[in-house]
């Protein structure tokens, strides 16, 4: 039987998603919990690997097992063995043809940024920070120039293992919550796929434009240069959340993971 799980986690305490010898990754914790519940080793594949400090509102994984349990039992039983900052949100049996990564039609992220003269305290590690006021209109004008299929080499980390830097960036939505010098900004991104550090590098450029250090048209120059040296420094991982992949409705997954349903809207950090 092949099973798909929706996972939510706070990434502050972990060295990213992918298993490492340290054992301090989300994948290591999840597979240990699944293996305890199933009383046999279980290995998982994920829809999108997240870096150290990055959070997930809906990571999707799949695995194969001969153990027969109800989906509800997989959710509750696995959560019993997980640390408090990782939790299975749902479990669904899927056909053998389903692959959490290859079957995804789109992927979504949100970056939560605190604009304040004082650094975050209670939200430390869960939001990015700008001490300077940001111009939303300028950032939206720049974001519009990024929409479409482009070579995003200028926003690609040197360690990126993607076969091609060409991605279809379908949506960037920038909204402000609150007014005055203290507020929050939400940057939502949707694409067919993303390069390593792509969103954090885009954020570095958008924030630079929002501060008034560059004009919106500068983002086109960065894009066309296809050189990481031209772009702004990589922005902090703290405020980055993987909102999850989106799939065809034929797989029977929850609406929040279904493209036709539009996916679950972002409603703030967990």
Automatic annotation (TrEMBL):
Family: Belongs to the tRNA pseudouridine synthase TruA family.
Gene: truA
Pfam families listed in its UniProt record: PseudoU_synth_1 (PF01416)
Keyword vocabulary terms for this entry: Isomerase, tRNA processing
Record protein name field: tRNA pseudouridine synthase A
Lineage, top ranks: Bacteria, Pseudomonadati, Pseudomonadota, Betaproteobacteria, Burkholderiales
GO biological process, one term: tRNA pseudouridine synthesis
Catalytic activity as recorded in UniProt: uridine(38/39/40) in tRNA = pseudouridine(38/39/40) in tRNA
Functional summary from the UniProt entry: Formation of pseudouridine at positions 38, 39 and 40 in the anticodon stem and loop of transfer RNAs.
Complexes and interactors: Homodimer.
């Amino acid at each position: 039987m092949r099973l798909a799980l929706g996972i939510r986690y706070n990434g502050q305490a972990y060295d990213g998603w992918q298993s490492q010898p340290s054992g301090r990754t989300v994948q290591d914790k999840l597979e240990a919990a699944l293996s305890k519940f199933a009383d046999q080793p279980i290995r998982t594949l994920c829809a999108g690997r997240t870096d150290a400090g990055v959070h997930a509102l809906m990571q999707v994984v799949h695995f194969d097992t001969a153990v027969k349990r109800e989906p509800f039992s997989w959710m509750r039983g696995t959560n019993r063995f997980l640390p408090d900052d990782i939790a299975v949100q749902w479990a669904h049996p899927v056909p053998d043809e389903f692959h959490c990564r290859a079957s995804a039609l789109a992927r979504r992220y949100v970056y939560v940024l605190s604009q304040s003269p004082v650094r975050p305290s209670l939200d430390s590690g869960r939001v990015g920070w700008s001490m300077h006021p940001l111009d939303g209109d300028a950032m939206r004008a720049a974001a519009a120039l990024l929409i479409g299929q482009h070579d995003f080499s200028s926003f690609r980390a040197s360690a990126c293992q993607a076969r091609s830097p060409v991605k279809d960036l379908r949506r960037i939505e920038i909204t402000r919550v609150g007014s005055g010098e203290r507020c929050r900004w939400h940057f939502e991104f949707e694409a067919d796929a993303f390069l390593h550090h792509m969103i954090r590098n885009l954020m570095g450029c958008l924030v630079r434009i929002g501060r008034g250090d560059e004009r919106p048209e500068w983002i086109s120059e960065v894009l066309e240069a296809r050189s990481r040296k031209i772009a702004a420094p990589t922005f902090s991982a703290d405020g980055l959340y993987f909102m999850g992949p989106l799939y065809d409705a034929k797989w029977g997954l929850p609406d929040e993971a279904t493209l036709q349903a539009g996916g679950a809207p972002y409603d703030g950090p967990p």
